[in-house]
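#onboarding

Welcome to the new folks! Below is a worked example of what a typical request in this channel looks like: someone posts a single protein sequence, and someone else replies with the predicted structure as tokens. Don't worry about understanding the tokens yet, we'll cover that in week two.

Example request:
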Amino acid sequence: MSTVSPSVQEYAVSVSAEHEALRKVVRSFSEATVKPDVMKMERDNEMDRTLLRKAAELGVYGLVFPEAYGGAGADHISLVIAIEELARVSPAFSAAVAASYLVSVPIYLFGNEEQKRKYLVPLAKGDTLGAHAMTEPVAGSDIAGIQSRAERRGRMYYITGRKVFITNGDKADTFLVFARTGLPEPARRHAGITAFIVEKDTPGLKVGARLAVTGLRGEQPVELVFDNMEVSEENILGEVGQGAKIALSTYDRGRLGISAQGVGIAQAALERALLYAKERLTFERPILSYQQVQFKVAEMTIRVHTARLSSYWAASLADRGIDFVKAASIAKITSSEAAERNAHDAMLIMGAYGVAVDTGVEALLRDSQVIKTYEGTNDIQRLVIAREVAKEVGFSG
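Example response:
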């Protein structure tokens, strides 16, 4: 009987000189190009789309895809490093980039050659932006509960329904929309869901209201409304009824990006706390010389390294073709909770400056709440981990 004890090879993580070179390039871009706009983004709750076009020139939208499809042919660790470095400066900007992968990745995994040429290539090059549309007012973590309907008439499908909390929904050129083409079966609630590739000017597609959330200002999600939205059968991704499989495979990979965002936020909080603690004097001494502050800094450092290692571990398993579902869930929990706790500890170290808007620390705390929630809440990730461990020991009850 198998056990939950992994082999040594499963824990092997290798970060190369090429990975570190990529980190330097993305960090330089983030500092020079994105950082000057961060406070304006926070204040106005708007993102300058020229930043997204500049990110396309950097090549961050197609890192994991073959060059034949407009990508860089890099690995998942490269993607994790890139998202981490973007999130270190702007979690909202990293979310806009990562969300596009929720469309490009499933097209790469499940699309036919024509779909890859038509949609994946421009997504990978950053010429277009993607938005993944699953969540509905009545269905979040339970994707089997979606109610959007797709009715077939000849070679066309007509989709009616409403999606909410859609990242990039107001900026996307290409949408991946999930709708019911059949009723769920008693023992298979996920049956009957189909994925459709939808272009932004499709008749019947309306971008609805922006939905204000606590963090990621500048990248607030929106609702999408479908009123007999007309989609050709040629735009079905995979097969009819395969939508749930496509979605779950996408989310497993998407959690790698979310864990990277957590690492970036945790790192940013640590850096700001350290900068403040070594310069702030009380009783003529830097507060970093006090043990209470040192203990907080030590705990923050532990969280950053633990989160980074778990993220790179999950990514390395994906690169080697080893089942990484459990690892991705572990990484998302570890990193997002490290982000939250580090942001809070940074606020405690910095006192009044920690809650001042201009220092950006309170924004990190708000942003951490979002990454704990999307791509499956952390409580859902705990259920995933428990399910995977039960499978490993042969338990099916």
